[in-house]
Design brief:
Layout lengths: L4 E5 L3 H12 L3 E5 L11 E4 L1 H9 L3 H5 L7 E5 L5 E6 H8 L4 E4 H10 L6 E2 L5 E4 L7 E5 L2 E5 L1 E4 L6 H6 L7 E13 L8 E4 L3 E7 L4 E9 L10 H9 L6 H7 L6 E7 L8 E2 L2 E3 L2 H4 L8 H16 L8 H6 L8 H28 L4 H15 L3 H4 L24
Helix pairs in contact: 1-5, 1-10, 2-10, 7-8, 10-12
């Protein structure tokens, strides 16, 4: 019996994870990537224990954990350098069953792509959804080389997802949050530093080490939508953060102006009614764009991919995916995708909202409100690192459906 066919639109982290997971569940997968090569836009990505456990399902968790560079203390600081709260890699691992691993996006993309046979990923291939399919007919995707049919289409085409607009034309889509971000990777400074995130008045800065000896830095500030620096973005960082504590000024000066990435932050304030329609599933930013304040955007895309493959492996009656694809009389093609939506929509909607609340805290600019915010953070931190980390309860301790060697027992 022929394998069921899956087309993945988008070769980012979520799309590649879905491709690996679906292949391991018996699907014949093709990834359609518009860009001429798999060069991810972005810099660093923090993989929390929830995403690592998801990657355990496809056998890549340990390879990611081997990239961990965070050792010792870190935490939250004020622009003058005062520590507002402190924690450690050990505290994170004890609380959530694993470390926080910071990787370059290109490293993770390469790792995922290496788990796919040659020819699965087609770069330089723009794809558009022509027909979402249904109970009796396959989905149809148009490409420059013609139309392709599939029993499953995975839309991992990002925050400006054309597939999402096709499936849900009346939905407002992501909205601008009033925040913009900058990201850069530079050589590590000579003086060692503790990993940190620093909150100021309507501004945020983070400096984190990478395993390869470089440093990933990110910043966020309130700004009009679409704004850009009058000269260059490094100069803008110097104006906004140049007088903050070490190592921030040195990181800014070490940056190549042409390598500073700036992106406005959008979020899916109005949840989609579902993450599927017909034989098409949405995942990652295409389904639930969120603020980066919890560091969960990429993590949730990885979770989506693993959960989608879990539900797509069998139909509603528990039949193998190959029978699912064959269109047998009792087959319900929407059952697996409906289960995927039911599983993912409540969780990701809650995380989007939590990220929004955290974003409001970082965007506070009134001096009195900032002083109150910082005092509350200090007071809470005195109760111990477990209290500080409590905000990630239910996020970082998530376990994938099914059994992995890391999760021990399947989720019920």
């Amino acid at each position: 019996m022929d394998q069921p066919r899956a087309l993945v639109i988008g070769g980012g982290i979520g799309g590649l994870t879905a491709a690996v997971a679906l292949r391991q569940r018996g699907w014949a997968v093709t990834v359609l990537e518009r860009a001429p090569e798999l060069t991810p836009v972005g810099a660093g990505l923090a993989l929390a224990p929830n995403a690592q456990r998801a990657l355990d399902v496809i056998g890549l968790g340990d390879r990611v954990r081997a990239l961990s560079a965070w050792q010792g203390d870190g935490g939250l600081r004020a622009p003058g350098g005062r520590w507002l709260s402190r924690t450690s890699g050990e505290a994170v691992a004890d609380r959530f069953g694993g470390p926080l691993v910071l990787v370059h996006r290109a490293t993770l993309v390469s790792l995922l792509a290496s788990a796919l046979p040659e020819g699965v990923v087609r770069t330089g291939t723009a794809a558009a959804l022509a027909d979402p399919g249904g109970e009796r007919g396959p989905a149809v995707v148009s490409t420059p080389d013609g139309e392709l049919e599939a029993e499953l289409v995975v839309a991992a085409d990002g925050i400006r997802s054309a597939v999402r607009r096709t499936l849900f034309p009346g939905h407002p889509g992501p909205r601008y949050t009033g925040l913009t971000t900058w990201r850069v990777v530079v050589p590590a400074p000579e003086r060692s530093f503790a990993p940190h995130e620093t909150w100021g008045r309507g501004r945020l800065w983070g400096t984190q080490p990478l395993k390869d000896g470089r440093v990933y830095a990110y910043a966020m500030a309130t700004a009009p939508e679409g704004a850009h620096a009058p000269d260059d973005e490094r100069a803008e960082l110097r104006r906004l953060f140049g007088d903050w504590h070490d190592p921030v000024p040195g990181i800014i000066e070490a940056a190549d102006p042409g390598q500073v990435l700036r992106n406005d932050v959008h979020e899916m304030a109005v949840p989609l009614p579902a993450y599927h329609r017909g034989r098409v599933a949405l995942l990652g930013d295409a389904a639930h764009a969120m603020q980066p304040t919890l560091g969960q955007g990429g993590n949730q895309a990885i979770e989506d991919a693993i959960v989608l493959a879990h539900h797509a492996g069998v139909d509603g009656a528990g039949r193998p995916a190959a029978e699912f694809a064959a269109g047998l009389p009792s087959h319900d093609p929407a059952a697996g995708l409906a289960s995927y939506s039911a599983d993912r929509l409540p969780r990701t909607t809650a995380i989007v909202r939590q990220a929004t609340r955290t974003g409001r805290m970082t965007a506070v600019s009134n001096p009195v409100a900032v002083a109150v915010r910082d005092a509350l953070i200090v007071a809470v931190s005195r109760l111990g690192p477990g209290i500080v980390l409590r905000g990630f309860a239910g996020i970082a301790d998530w376990r994938p459906p099914g059994r992995t060697y890391a999760s021990g027992t399947p989720r019920q």
